[in-house]
Amino acid sequence: MVEGKTILITGAAGRIGSCLARHLIALGGSVVLIDSDEAKLQLICSELNERQSAYFCIDASDAVAVDKCFEESVSRFGKVDCSIHSAYPRSKGWGTPFEGLTKSYLYQDISDQLGGAILFSQRSLSFFQKQGYGNLINVSSIQGICAPKFEQYADTEMVSPLEYSAIKAAIISITKYLAKYYKGQNIRVNCISPGGIIDGQHISFISNYRKACINKGMLEPNDIVGALLFLISDHSLYINGQNLVIDDGWSL
Description:
Elements: E1 6-10, H1 15-26, E2 30-35, H2 38-46, E3 53-57, H3 63-77, E4 82-85, H4 103-131, E5 134-139, H5 162-181, E6 187-194, H6 203-211, H7 221-232, E7 243-246
Parallel strand pairs: 1-2, 1-4, 2-3, 4-5, 5-6, 6-7
Helix pairs in contact: 1-7, 3-4, 4-5
């Protein structure tokens, strides 16, 4: 399914990125891990087969650094079949309620998350053009296709940031745009929209969230990986410009 493929992953020290890397290695793929947290990258890579993995501690929106990353990945593995953008940088103001948003943090988050996704897409697709083929996968969210279910946040201090919904909706939009923009160039661009991932949330939120789902409720990173493996593989060769939702029915 992915044996022999080389996949570059941003946000690779995160829960989804690191989980995917482990699965890819186990299935015979090679991984290039990108993140700004070098300590976490080193820890993850220490668990992986050295012959099948490499890491770069860079900002995924830094064009020069990303270009060099692709260049060194080709030198090491001979090619890059797919790049996955799952980086999720957040400002110190992340999670501020709508009424309290300030220009500096708002602009920073939109720039880092949405701007970063656009710039990483630019460098990935430029590389794929030269290579003659490629596969870019973005990570959006159910908040990009639906308004939050605000009642699920009752009795917690949790917030669903407005800018998160705006950014994730835009990720879906740029995915569709780029898929058509590179028509006829043997390049695919898709994205996934995961539901909520378990990460120490308040128990009442987890319970309320579960009521909107069909079988499980909050998901684990392992629950997302199968969809990514499918999009990486040649089984999805003619899926292009699509947004694959993995949310146990939350968005129904």
